[in-house]
């Protein structure tokens, strides 16, 4: 009799531990980016409940026209609930020397109003915590500029895209549309 009781307690405890682990897995870490030019930090946790598109950008890259695509996508889908973050980086040698130059270029040439972070590192142990998390949990490491990461409303990775996939492409829209808040 005591064996059955202990077994039930054990099973109930195990189920509880599994439920707790599943709940924790649904909650992504709260990442923070410093905004380009200063101001209040960009905290991805504040965007929970919305899909978030994070794009590592570079102003002097051959894919730089995607800055305009990113801005247009932000204008069209932002009101529907999509959050967009541009994350400049010079890991591949295609960004300006200073954050001020990057910001001026993006605003002047592309009319960017998309939230942008200060330039960050994407690669190695000194990478921004978001990119270290992507590497550790998904095995995803940007291999060039304009790699895209889509997070769901809980902050979990839905999918990633490489540089050739343009922001606002039909493929992106098809995957993002069901994630938008009702």
Automatic annotation (TrEMBL):
<feature type="signal peptide">
    <location>
        <begin position="1"/>
        <end position="21"/>
    </location>
</feature>
<feature type="active site">
    <location>
        <position position="61"/>
    </location>
</feature>
<keyword id="KW-0732">Signal</keyword>
<protein>
    <recommendedName>
        <fullName>Glutathione peroxidase</fullName>
    </recommendedName>
</protein>
<dbReference type="InterPro" id="IPR036249">
    <property type="entry name" value="Thioredoxin-like_sf"/>
</dbReference>
<dbReference type="GO" id="GO:0034599">
    <property type="term" value="P:cellular response to oxidative stress"/>
</dbReference>
<dbReference type="Pfam" id="PF00255">
    <property type="entry name" value="GSHPx"/>
</dbReference>
<dbReference type="InterPro" id="IPR013766">
    <property type="entry name" value="Thioredoxin_domain"/>
</dbReference>
<feature type="domain" description="Thioredoxin">
    <location>
        <begin position="22"/>
        <end position="181"/>
    </location>
</feature>
<dbReference type="InterPro" id="IPR000889">
    <property type="entry name" value="Glutathione_peroxidase"/>
</dbReference>
<keyword id="KW-0575">Peroxidase</keyword>
<keyword id="KW-0560">Oxidoreductase</keyword>
<comment type="similarity">
    <text>Belongs to the glutathione peroxidase family.</text>
</comment>
<dbReference type="GO" id="GO:0004601">
    <property type="term" value="F:peroxidase activity"/>
</dbReference>
């Amino acid at each position: 009799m005591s064996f059955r009781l202990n077994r039930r307690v054990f099973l109930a405890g195990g189920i509880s531990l599994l439920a707790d682990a599943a709940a924790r897995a649904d909650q992504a870490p709260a990442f923070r980016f410093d905004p380009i030019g200063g101001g209040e930090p960009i905290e991805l946790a504040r965007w929970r409940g919305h899909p978030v598109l994070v794009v590592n950008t570079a102003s002097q890259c051959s894919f730089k026209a995607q800055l305009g695509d990113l801005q247009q996508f932000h204008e069209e889908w932002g009101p529907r609930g999509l959050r967009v973050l541009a994350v400049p980086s010079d890991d591949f040698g295609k960004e300006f020397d200073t954050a001020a130059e990057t910001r001026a270029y993006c605003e002047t040439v592309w009319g960017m109003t998309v939230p942008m972070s200060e330039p960050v590192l994407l690669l190695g142990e000194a990478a921004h915590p978001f990119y270290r998390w992507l590497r550790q949990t998904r095995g995803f490491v940007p291999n060039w500029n304009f790699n895209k990461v889509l997070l769901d409303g809980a902050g979990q990775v839905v999918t990633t895209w490489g540089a050739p996939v343009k922001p606002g492409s039909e493929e992106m829209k098809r995957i993002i549309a069901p994630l938008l808040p009702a």
